[in-house]
Design the sequence.
């Protein structure tokens, strides 16, 4: 069975390693990510990919380092919807 790859900036904390391994990911340094730098701007709300990832981390949302643009924006939308439902802004 082939594991999905999570491209992470190194060094990776032991906690993050455990989290990714638990999710079934193989961890590889982000500098080897073939898609690195290909997502300039994520659509919607003016987020760029790095800002979207920072937002999700701030909200405690887990995601793979090599997440695609569409999945990234879907997670942002879901996090914003959950935030709106709970009355936080």
Sequence:
């Amino acid at each position: 069975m082939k594991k999905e790859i999570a491209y992470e900036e190194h060094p990776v904390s032991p906690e993050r390693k455990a989290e990714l391994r638990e999710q079934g990911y193989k961890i590889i340094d982000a500098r080897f990510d073939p898609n690195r730098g290909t997502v300039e701007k994520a659509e919607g709300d003016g987020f760029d990919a790095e800002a979207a990832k920072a937002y999700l981390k701030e909200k405690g949302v887990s995601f793979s380092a090599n997440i695609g643009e569409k999945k990234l924006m879907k997670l942002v939308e879901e996090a914003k919807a959950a935030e709106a439902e709970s009355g936080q802004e």
Q: What stands out?
A: The first helix runs from residue 14 to 22. The chain has three helices and two strands.
